Amino acid sequence: MAVVRAPRISLAGTGALLLDGAQGPFDEAIQELVWAVAKAARSLEGVRETVPGMNNLLVLFDPLATDALSVGEQLKSLWTGTDAHTIDGTLHTISVSYGGSRGEDLACWAAHCGLSLEETVSRHAAATYTVAAIGAMPGFPYLSGLDPRLAWPRRRSPRLKVAEGAVIIGGAQAGIMPMTAPSGWHIIGHTDARLVDVQSQSPVLLRPGDRIRFEIAGIEK
Predict the structure, then answer these.
(1) In angstroms, what CA-CA distances link 60 with 13, 66, 113, 135?
(2) Pairing of strands 211-220, 91-99
(3) Which candidate, 196, 141, 198, places its Cα nearest to that of 173?
(4) DSSP 33-48
(5) Residue 23 — left, alpha, or beta (φ > 0 → left; ψ -120 to 50 → alpha)?
(6) Is 139 exposed, middle or buried (0-12, 13-18, 19+ CB in 10 A)?
(7) C-alpha span between 52 and 13 (Å, rounded)
(8) Mean pLDDT along residues 109-115
């Protein structure tokens, strides 16, 4: 097992701790360790839930059954004593229509990257993305694996309404809107794939460890 630095653990209310594993740029190996520790921590006495984030982990516990000091010390032990491992997730192919009225930032994105529209889209679709975490809203996937050349800082002023199915870029991450909601990410295309279906037995399509390939349905300038 690779040597990793000690995590930073801080209080997140009276019944939760936040473990920050990387304290720097996103690291795929750290994320695999986050997944493993999240699974192991669910068996700790008093722990109610674990929620993996991007290189961090939120651990919710019952303050009547345990305390933050005890949970924190156990998390430190798990961090150094748990083997990181990949999750054998599902591979999803998601068709995307790039640009047009539902991908309004495509041209500006290409200009920011110094690439043609076609090259920008080709690079975006060439990668295999990993669902590092689900958060922000039900079913929202934080996707790692974006070509570094395509990174684009988030908007200074978030849009108040970004449509369900919007394919988006935020910093060094890619994402897909599971529902219509505010967002400061850039809109580069649209998919008809449904990420959340409340009528389904499994209402959320994507889970941490799943992989995504984007398929180009078309490019509209």
Answers:
(1) 9, 11, 40, 15
(2) parallel
(3) 141
(4) HHHHHHHHHTTSTTEE
(5) left
(6) buried
(7) 17
(8) 97
Structure tokens of 180? 């219509």
For 166, other C-beta atoms within 10 Å of its C-beta total 25
Transcribe 151-190 into DSSP letters.
-BPPPSS-EEEE-TTEEEEEBTEEEE-SSSEEE-SEEEEE
Entry field: residues in the chain: 221
User: Over the stretch 166-206, which tens digit does the pLDDT of each residue have?
Assistant: 999 999 999 999 999 999 999 999 999 999 998 888 899 99
d(CA 156, CA 154) in angstroms, rounded, equals 6
Residue type, 206: L
60, 49 Cβ separation under 8 angstroms: yes
Distance CA 189, CA 27 (A): 27
Residue of 140, 200, 136 lying closest to 164 (CA atoms): 140
